[in-house]
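For the sake of transparency, this paper describes our internal protein records without simplification. The tokens are whole numbers drawn from a learned vocabulary of local backbone shapes. One such record is reproduced below, unchanged from the form in which we store it.

. . .
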Amino acid sequence: MAGNQNYINHVALVLDASSSMSRLSRKVVEVADQQISYLARRSQELDQETRVTVYVFADKVECVIYDKDVLRMPSLKSLYRVGGMTALLAATLKSQRELAQTAQLYGDHSFLTFVLTDGQENASHRCDDAPSKDPRGLMQAVAELVEKQEDNWTLAVLVPDQMGKREAMQCGFPKDNIAVWDATSTQGLEEAGVVIREATEKFMVGRTKGIRGSRAVFSTGADAVNTQTIKAAGLTPLDASAYELIPVARDIAIREWVTESGHTYRTGCAFYQLSKSEKVQARKQIAVLEKKTDRIFTGPEARALLGLPDAEVRLKPDHNDDFTIFVQSTSVNRKLVAQTRLLLMT
């Protein structure tokens, strides 16, 4: 893509407006409006053009805003009305099919859709434009659509429980593009808003690194990393002479192990292997190790690669078969865990 091509993001919110959402309806508007003002701010800061589409669905699916400049978006207050059943699959299909007709002539276009529902599918077969009247046929249609989407499409869904998650997986939604939210309270909806915002931040920062879409939009941690994302982020490995990997023989303080291994301890030179879920501060550097080759990737790109915002975030331990995460230690007493490795910048 030529350097002068601008980034154009098409962000869609597909919102459940079935009767069961009535007690949350004011909060839905508030959370959606917050997401839109956040998008407007980040679009200006990152110099990306963002266009917003909003669908609401109950017995039928309605597009209430189509591909509108985020800087000119109205509040959803007058556009979100609840009542009816849950045409979840029809809404997913209609939103993706209609957005696919958006012109992509110039610029680097990327599509990000969040579907939010508090219940199970039960009304799509009644929609006039549904491709099938059979629930199984509809699930199959969604699965085929997801499979055929290009690499600049990201489709994510927030469901109320594990049953919803199972159904979303049967519909072909990538596992890490499904989040479970607490649909019983306004607090739960507020938390869902935070999850959407963090996923959007990861998406927009990823755009600046050349990542055009994601099948792990809700994951932060080693499971968000694979060879393709490393390549897409333009990461180059550190020179092998710039670091050393030292096995940790026993539980021991980090400075003690560095000096015991024959090295001089300098603040920030040592990275510990992530071995449990923990909070990582914004200033901490991250390094990613490719297990097969022992190659190390570091710098702000490695942080963006893991989907970490520029703020404190909880990072999950290593669940990825191919990569290991190391976190910079600024404490001399950081306890190293036996059977892990220490990454030392030489």
Summary: The longest helix spans residues 186-208.
